[in-house]
Amino acid sequence: MSIVRYQPPETVAWSGLNRLSNLRDELDTLFEMPFWSNFGRQSQLFSGWSPALDLYQNNDNVIVRVELPGMRKEDIEISLQDGMLTISGERKSETAEGDKAERTERYVGKFRRSISLPTQVDVSKVTATYRDGILTVTLAKAEEAKPKQIQVNVA
Questions:
Q1: Exposed, middle or buried by CB within 10 Å (0-12, 13-18, 19+), for 127?
Q2: 73 assigned to some structural domain
Q3: In a domain, 103, yes or no
Q4: Percentage helix, strand, coil, to 5, in the chain?
Q5: What digits encode the pLDDT tens for the residues 76-119?
């Protein structure tokens, strides 16, 4: 698997470039998978999904927001290890058995998003809320990572 550095939208000169980058990542995944390991199963290539994720920070916290519409909080897992936040889960199909889909555009199945945090956080002060399809994870910065105001004394 290749790691691609996140680029804010204003640094991408052409919006089609992002789609080409995603296609390249999918093709890399295809060639990294041994053929026999996926034989007889549905490949996740082009069928898996990856929810949109935003990361913000202020003086005290790192805030991660993830779009997870239509999911139950019981189907979402969050873990934090070695400065890497991982959010995973599974969106289940809502169709009744025997229904024939004429068109499906909503993704179902498992997902996993991992993001490297920009600074050290206090693991004991992590909170997560889920409201209106948006998961918000608030990670308090570790004291040593917070900016310090140094006062200048006149001698």
A1: exposed
A2: yes
A3: no
A4: 20, 35, 45
A5: 999 999 889 999 999 887 777 778 878 877 788 889 999 999 99
